[in-house]
Amino acid sequence: xxxxxxxHALPADFYDQLAHCLSLHGMAAAELLSQPEAHRLGKLxxxxxxxxxxxxxxxxxxxxxxxxxxxPLALYYLLLLGRLTLETxxxxxxxxxxxxxxxxxxxQLDYLKTYCLELSGAFLNTLEEHLPxxxxxxxxxxxxxxxxxxxxxxxxxxxxxxxxxxNLRLSEPQLQMLRLALLLVHSLPAxxxxxxxxxxxxxxxxxxxxxxxxxxxxxxxxAQEQLTLTMPELVQLYQGMQVCGMIFVSDVMSRLGLEDAFxxxxxxxxxxxxxAPVSNRQAVGEMVSGFTHWVQHTFPESEEIQQARQEILAxxxxx
Length: 319
What we know:
Elements: H1 14-33, H2 39-45, H3 49-55, H4 61-70, H5 72-86, H6 92-102, H7 106-130, H8 140-156, E1 164-169, H9 172-186, H10 195-200, H11 208-220, E2 226-230, H12 231-249, H13 251-255, H14 267-271, H15 280-298, H16 303-316
Antiparallel strand pairs: 1-2
Helix pairs in contact: 1-3, 1-5, 1-7, 2-8, 4-5, 5-7, 9-11, 9-12, 12-15, 12-16
């Protein structure tokens, strides 16, 4: 651009203010552009994942000002695409990664996201005031509308995410139990001569490929962090926990060689228990019972839970 005098009005610490915003929007834009259906957006913005990566390498005020002088539209597009993405389900893996890397809770993550969106919104307005439109376009604002329209069409090709059914904050033992239950069900042999295992293999919600996204979801959550579950995920946990409990108290446990799969209580935990230390089977049984009773009590009129319960009752008949 020929006239960049407006850059002199930027604060001397503007990069420090913008750093988290650039990083978050850059990751979101990269996630968007990695989608096969995003070719139209790539064409409209002349952005690619490699270009986004290059812009994300900006680490100083000087580098930021250099980019704003030499390729301001690239930064404009990065902020715009990142902003659009962060307000959709496409940003879920990005936000999960940021939360894990920064070691922040959900409230802190929400604050960071809000701050970055407010900052990008204000800076986009500033850029639109000073940047010339791309060649062949009447105005940058009009071009932005075309980009937003293409983004809306892209979103329409994705299924609508299921609404949240429950928000939990679990202790470390509870979280480990849920993870272990799903991993156990996921690892059950696909071909087995036991009627119980054959029946489990027919449950739609407990198919290995259906469990993998939830296993990954639980793997990203830490104790006492908010765990948001959709109804299909809740059904998977509800059934998975009960299958795990049935395996643990039946002959299936020994037939599969899983007697040592579950951790015992530590000495400290045993010492803190007033009553006699419970066995592994009792501990697992209590956790399974507690979780399934909570689900049934919290969702007494849910058709999905009622159907899942009927399937589990039929499963118990095979033991």
